[in-house]
Amino acid sequence: AxxxxxxxxxxxxQTQAQVESDEQLxxxxxxxxxxxxxxxxxxxxxxxxxxxxxxxxxxxALMQKMKxxxxxxxxxxxxxxxxxxxxxxxxxxxxxxxxxxxAPVKVEPSPAARTPTDDTPPEYSSKMGGPFHPKPYFASRIxxxxxxxxxxxxxxxxxxxxxxxxxxxxxxxxxLDELRPLSLTSVDDFDLxxxxxxxxxxxxxxxxxxxxxKARDWVAQSLDIKKVRKTISxxxxxxxxxxxxxxxxxxxxxxxxLTKAIEIADCLSIAYRSPTGIPYSLLDLRTKRxxxxxxxxxxxxxxxxxxxxxxxxxxxxxxxxxxxxxxxDRSFIxxxxxxGKIHDALYPLxxxxxxxxxxxxxxxxxxxxxxxxxYAIKLYIQTNNTQSKFREMYEESAxxxxxxxxxxxxxxxxxxxxxxxxxxxKKMDHLACFAGAMFLLGAHFIENLPDKSHxxxxxxxxxxxxxxxxxxxxxxxxxxxxxxxxxxGMTHDSENLHYLLRPETVETLFYLFRFTGNNKYxxxxxxxxxxxxxxxxxxxxxxxxxxxxxxxxxxxxKMESFFLAETLKYLYLLFSxxxxxxxxxxxxxxxxxxxxxxxx
Length: 600
Description:
- This protein is mostly helical.
- It contains 19 helices and 19 strands.
- The strands form 8 sheets. The protein has a 3-stranded antiparallel sheet with strand order 3-4-5. It has a 3-stranded antiparallel sheet with strand order 8-11-12, with no helix packed on it.
- Mean pLDDT is 85; it is low at 1-9, 11-59 and 79-122.
């Protein structure tokens, strides 16, 4: 009870029963009927916009139309500002939204949530300077360059594991969201081919050409969000589906991925039509209504609202349409300007959509808070270290985390605690193991970072703690979280002994190796991989474990999409040449999808 309910990955997908309950009971549903015809034509035919994108010979004409639409929007915004000055601005601004089938949905800003424009201070801008068409990136050609025989064999072992996971998915859940590898059934919360789309860039990076081509053809022929009639998580759809499509486009240059990404983003834009620009968590694709889950008491979730900006900025750069970047950035800035922060720079887990105010006293870098802090530094990196707004947010938050959340256990392990209503909660989620990577990125990319050596020391300490979280278990597999009682030091919690094939520890080991060159991080990663092979591999894929403290293990019968997208990708990169996706050229989203840093 102290630690609260255990929910699925990241900020956690909800069960179908919870979703159906939300549809009936939530009072936060937001109507967006005026844009129905633009995104979901009644006759099920494709919009003129989608047809134009799909036909290569009309791309230039479409870009011109989009530019004209943007010009009209800017003119409207200027008029609105003038009206504000003379106290003539009406409360209802919905009439100013561009509503055509030829252009993406435009979401008007509220007065409380500034939209970046040409008048925005120079430390911040949503201008991405596109369109940009990436050249194919053939990582498999250099993946083994300079490796010794042992490392090359380990790399090949990880690729073989990916092949085993993909084979099980392809044969028993093709085009469905996630495989249940024991019952040979599927989990279908999205109806968007979640595992397939999430795995595209992993297939490409590993040189699995035939598998990638087959997956690409499924995307071209079968991925259609207009046909989905479920309630989906806006956050998970953004980081996994939109994020996966964009990274597939980034690496392959195949236009079909950009076309589909635009369709997904245009649909998701409904969720951003809140008074503050902070998105709602759930989107009902049957009614085209957005809402927040009942269990969050009508609030949005910090990590969900603050972990979409890398994806929308990449989409703006690729498409040449800055509306996407502005939509995501508006949410991030609204969060930064909200009242109710703790210790000035720690952000509580729940935030309202209608006013800029947090409604919780709980802060932490585990579930529901984690990736917001991660994106502050990664947005600074993505913009080639040019936008100081993001750097300042990260520096302030990192300082607060170091001063108030980072702790040492009685047996010497560095961990990141939570604060709940002023009280320290001595536990650390496996999800929070990403923070080692975060502190390393900040130390590497921020010049003159105060006390930089301490940031690196904490990153190394987190890596060691999370590795030992695996080593201390009988299976050599980590539980969902650890607790740190004063009299026992680091130990497991009896209510959270499951392992969901999570990536965060090997993610930090990857960054530690890249930034330090210390081979022990490869050894730790190999040890973790071997135990995954021993206890999580099943005949038709990989499965999570219900209790990592006992053998023989009992499996969860679910292969999470992020196992292919993140866990196996980070392990493969750990045993690959540092020339593959160099960190001064690429930045990863929270689902391990890489995008090029925006450089002139």
